[in-house]
Specification:
GO cellular component, one term: plasma membrane
Order of helices and strands: EHEHEHEHEHHEEHHEHHHH
Distance between the termini: 39 Å
CATH architecture of the largest domain: Alpha-Beta Complex
Main location: membrane
CATH topology of the largest domain: Spore Coat Polysaccharide Biosynthesis Protein SpsA, Chain A
Shape: globular
Structural class: alpha/beta
Number of strands: 8
CATH superfamily of the largest domain: Spore Coat Polysaccharide Biosynthesis Protein SpsA, Chain A
Number of domains: 2
Largest sheet: 8 strands, mixed
Pfam family, one: Glycos_transf_2
Keywords: Cell membrane, Glycosyltransferase, Membrane, Transferase, Transmembrane, Transmembrane helix
Helix content: 40-55%
Strand content: 5-15%
GO molecular function: glycosyltransferase activity
Strand order of the largest sheet: 3-2-1-4-7-5-8-6
Length: about 350
């Protein structure tokens, strides 16, 4: 795929990178070195780690890197702990009048060479864009994670989200957050810092309502490491489902079909399972679903050319059921008026 942004000049002094972190001592050094060591451009880019109260020595690792080789690296405390709050705090406290572009990075990721420069250049290449999203390519280290990574990048696993393994650049309603024009970020108040998950999609809803546009740069790709156990995957997708439901509730949205499908499927499985105690033919639906998951596993074995593919079906079932359960749980809580709503500490609009 042609690189659409590489030829655009960007002043590094106009770029600020923010990395929210919490107990990432094992990963933060690799992340920061991949960002700061791979491109001379980064010598003049300010990098801020917003630490949410780590207890594993993350702060010491950051400070050692700053003192040893990265003088443009800063560490701030994120008293509200959440990633959304950390981004807001970093913008409020560290982004100066010279900064026009914010690049968000994940402490758990290792970035390809020139990632920050390319994200900033993609934003500069399209003055009409308020944000730039990039593509995530799922990867796995163990057998289960490899199968989960394969299935999550299929339409069954991602619902066809363009930023999940997509190959075509274009305007999107939402994508994996990478670059922001700070004028837009401040205009809409940054992230809703009460969101622990789905804060990116919630941000994009507000952005779209005031005319901001998101460009998906499919030529800029980031490897995403899948959870390595069924329990971790279930917890992740439960949180994703809860976060999406909060966004739907907050903005009175009508969920898309791909968002409703996991919740509807879970309800049907529960209802038909209960009904089958009185009318055994109702088991046809659960059995059909299990057969579909088995078929996914067979396709996974062929696609991965590995017996690890047998985990693709179970991984798909876990993420679909957990997402649906989280979505329904949060929607019910919201309807009862008992959904947890921590205080909003969004970034100032000034």
């Amino acid at each position: 795929m042609a690189d659409e942004s590489i030829a655009v000049d960007v002043d590094p002094a106009h770029v600020i990178v923010v990395v929210p972190a919490l107990n990432e001592a094992q990963h933060i050094a690799d992340c920061l070195q991949s960002l700061a060591s791979s491109d001379p451009f980064m010598a003049n880019v300010r990098i801020v780690v917003a630490d949410g109260g780590s207890t594993d020595g993350t702060q010491a690792v950051v400070e050692e890197l700053r003192d040893r080789c990265f003088p443009n690296l800063s560490l701030i405390d994120n008293l509200d702990r959440l990633q959304s709050a950390g981004l807001n705090a970093a913008v409020d406290r560290c982004a100066g009048p010279e900064h026009t572009i914010l690049v968000r990075c994940d402490a758990h990721a290792v970035y390809p060479e020139g990632y920050v420069r390319r994200v900033a250049a993609a934003l500069e290449a399209r003055p009409e864009a308020a944000s730039v999203a990039t593509v995530m390519d799922a990867r796995g280290e163990c057998c289960f994670a490899r199968a989960a990574a394969w299935v999550v990048d299929t339409p069954l696993g991602s619902g066809g989200s363009a930023h999940r393994g997509g190959t075509r650049s274009g305007w999107v309603d939402h994508g994996h957050h990478a670059g922001f024009r700070l004028s837009w970020f401040r205009q809409i108040g940054g992230y809703d810092s009460s969101f622990s998950h789905n804060e990116d999609a919630e941000y994009d809803v507000r952005l779209g309502r005031v005319g901001g546009r998101v460009w998906l740069a499919a030529d800029i790709r980031l490897g995403y490491l899948m959870r390595d156990t069924p329990r971790k995957l279930a917890r992740q997708y439960w949180n994703y489902g809860c976060g999406r439901a909060r966004t739907v509730h907050k903005h009175h949205l009508r969920p898309k079909l791909r968002q409703l499908a996991p919740a509807v499927n879970m309800l049907l499985l529960l209802l038909t399972g209960l009904w089958a105690t009185l009318w055994p033919p109702a088991l046809a639906y659960p059995l059909a679903y299990l057969m579909a998951l088995a078929a996914v596993s067979l396709i996974g074995v062929v696609s991965l050319r590995s017996v690890c593919g047998v985990f693709a079906g179970p991984a798909l079932g876990i993420l679909q059921m957990a997402w649906g359960a989280g979505f329904l749980s949060e929607r019910l809580a919201a309807l009862r008026g008992s959904a947890h709503r921590p205080p909003n500490t969004s970034v100032s609009r000034s």
